Amino acid sequence: MQTFPSDGVTIAYLDVPAEGGGGDPILLIHGFASNHAVNWVNTLWVRTLTQAGRRVIALDNRGHGESQKLYDPDLYGSDIMAADARRLLDHLAIERADVMGYSMGARISAYLALDYPERVRSVLLGGLGLHLVEGRGLPDGIAEALEAPAGAPAPNPTAAAFRTFAEQTKSDLRALAACMRGSRQSLSRAEVAQIEAPALVTVGTLDTVSGSGPALAALLPNARSVELPNRDHSTAVGDRQHRAAVLEFLGTRP
To answer: Which residue has the higher pLDDT, 248 or 156?
Structure first.
């Protein structure tokens, strides 16, 4: 892992060349309570993409993984984390990249495509559908579960699952609680309609967190949707059909 300063915050990232060298760059942005390794390395995304001739850049979002931990929710806006991603492209002298995010990372990717359209060649939104514009997706109580003493009952099963996941990834629970409170912004339909980059929306058919993928794709000017059969929010990310759909999209997008 390497690091760079993003407006005073230390951001860690991985930069893996394509097999054989060269290759179009793709920036990967992970989900909440995850990190670059759990979201993209362990699920074989980095290997799949580099074998397909892509240069893969994967960052740890602020508050996650090996990046700097912050405890003020105001420092975790989706637009702020999108700016971290844009500064990483600046740091690496990458003019334009395909950008793929999962869950919270997809929300950040959408903000990146909206705020810095000249930097985004295409945008791939995994594990996020209509909840980008309708609701926040995840239920309340997650931040409170993260801050609770070990063994305390969580307010709902989703909050309990995120507490367990955060402990498994050895995350800073207080930083994640601040991130949860600060990063749950939505885009309006009008804002989504301004994202003109070619887009792919991928959501599992059993996903109760993301909202409808086809409904979000219908709001984007240049998008298509792929539904992943019998996959929920946690199992869709590394699904073989997900990887196949992404490679097909990258091979045919302008």
So the answer is: 248
What is the token pair recorded at 86? 């844009």
Contact 120, 27 (CB under 8 A): no
DSSP designation for 17: P
CATH number for the domain that contains residue 247? 3.40.50.1820
**Cα 240 from Cα 231, distance rounded (Å):** 11
Answer whether 67's CB lies under 8 Å from 59's CB.
yes
pLDDT digits (tens, 9 = 90+) for 110-134: 999 999 999 999 999 999 999 999 9
101 within domain boundaries: yes
Structure tokens at 47: 């290997």
Pairing status of strand 120-126 against strand 199-204: parallel
Burial 48-83 (b: 16+ CB within 10 A, else e): bbbebebbbbbbbbbbbbbbbbbeebebbbbebbbb
| DSSP summary character for residue 7 | T
- Residue 8 has which token pair? 């005073």
Q: Is 9 helix (H, G, I), strand (E, B) or coil?
A: strand
Q: Does a structural domain hold residue 157?
A: no
Is the overall model pTM greater than 0.90, yes or no?
yes
Residue 205 tokens read as 């058919």
Spatial separation of the C-alpha atoms in residues 83 and 77, rounded to whole Å? 10
Q: Enumerate the H helices of 173-212 as residue ranges.
A: 173-182, 189-192
Percent of the chain at pLDDT exceeding 70: 99
The helix/strand/coil state of 26 is strand
16 beta partners? 56
* Structural domains in the chain (count): 1
Joined together, the tokens standing for residue 177 give 């609680």
